[in-house]
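User: Once you have settled down, look closely at the record that follows, taking as long as you need, and be ready to discuss the fold:
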Amino acid sequence: RIFGIMSAESTVPIRRTSSPKTADGDGETTAWLHAHYDPVASLYTFTTCLALSDLNADGDHKLLVADLGTGTYDMKLKVYKGTTLHMESAIVDLPTGICTFYMDQNEPLIPAVAVASGPFIYIYKNSRPYFKFTTPPLEVNAVETDAWNQVKEGIIDATVLREKLIELRNEAGEHELTVRSLRLLQLPPDDLEMFTSQHKHMPLKKQTVITCISTLKKSHSEENAVSCLVIGTEASHVYTLDPQAFTILATMALPSVPVFMCVSGLFDVEYSIVVSCRDGNVYTLKRGSKTPKYCIELASQPIGMERVGKNVVVGCMDKTLLCYSPKGKKLWTVYMPDDITALELMQHEARGFKAIMVALKNAEVHVYKDKYLVNILKCEDVVNAMKFGRFGREDGALIMVTRGGGLIIKLLKRTANFEARELAPGPPSSQSVKLNIPRKSKVAVDQIHRERANGTEMHQVFQSNLLKLQLAAGRSYVKSIQTSLNPISSTQAEPLKLSARVQGIGPLFKLTVELQNTSSSTSLMKLLIAFRYDETLYSLSRPLIEVPFLVPSLSYSFETLVQCHSDAGVTDAIKAYVLREGNTVPIISAVINMPVSESVVIV
């Protein structure tokens, strides 16, 4: 009744067909073959709820999906053989993870399926319900128990009970309350009496839920060796379960609720559990320790976590892919072009290849070997969950579930070679080509000997000249500020920018001065533009220009005519000053070099 009823259907094998729509990052032939795409598979799941396993020990690996349904009902465990739904089973609560493990070494070696849902782990074997494990109950807060007992005895009513529970929640937090009390706090005042009368005679229980699940080899490291279940709960505990009796072998405490787990080692020898928690930190648990040994503080919340060798790779919500050493030292960071939606370890044992697959919001899957991008797979929709491994009789199969509920299956080509790319750090291979450098001449050899003999003196002379140059540049800069020879104002009180241009071939020129208020909010007024020039050589129609009200961020143009009185090709500079009325010190200035005036031709 709890596990539901399984139904078998016909199966269809996977066909290897190439897809012209997918290509890698270099535009070359893709390393993947398109096997199947069902846009209406109606799957709603995440990476932790996908698994690949040989359920019948016949060499035909099947896909297991813990489907979340609508989020409130229709949760199911689905098994795909090839591209067809082989069987399914109803699940009471929302699944949080799925894994397969071997409980014993009895022939034939058939794995068991563990589905974490609510406070329970449903164990399936031979495609049938086998066992249901329940997480141990937690101790109920004494204040909460006393409040419910007073309601039961009629000492207080539902309104007073609600006030006591609110006070307890504010002091200790919501995690200290039972589900019944949290439900009571959510009800409107009119429904409190009915709710308390229905539940006050029932015993008060506090049950936690499972947030993540994984497996740990017990005493041997073979692929089909007996494994223990490792689960993380909402109560910030990590439990290790016996594979046969399903008793708790080890209990560890964490500072926060675990979300993702990576387990390695052997339970009877030495093991480590890397846990990513809801507080944005990554903790490491070792054999025999009750509390975490190392802590990694992340800049944002994790999206997924995988273990590559001894290092831990974490994908975060700030579009970064981070790699840490076993002791928590950051090794490298890769910035993604879009938000990360899923993370999966690509491990091809036949080729000895390990990489990290990162699904992005732009409907692409990037493959990284270490911190180097080696392949880009373009998909039909945004990928929410993916699993790489043996599917059917294919070793390199990539199962992807899209945001729209579709199912995509890609197969890795047997000729795909990610190692052929330039993955090594450093310069490109073309830089190692030897250049045809000519032989040293006698002059160059003599210069080398001279520099070796007089190296100290040459360096002292260079430093002296450099200091003199810096001093001269500093003096010129100070002089330009003091005399306002800069066309851009250096004060925040009067932010101005001055520019000028000359038009014409002479002897009559048009001089245009552009003045701009560079401030974003301050207006300027009562300004003047004055010109200084050689009166024997030039005459201006407007030697003094009154500047109107200057609106911020707008540019204003002022024109004046310049008459040149010389035909000998003599030229000089005209200086433009911007002044404030009543002040003789200019705000800014500009030097205008006048062109040579053409002589007047009389026809």
Residues 455-482 form the longest helix (28 residues).
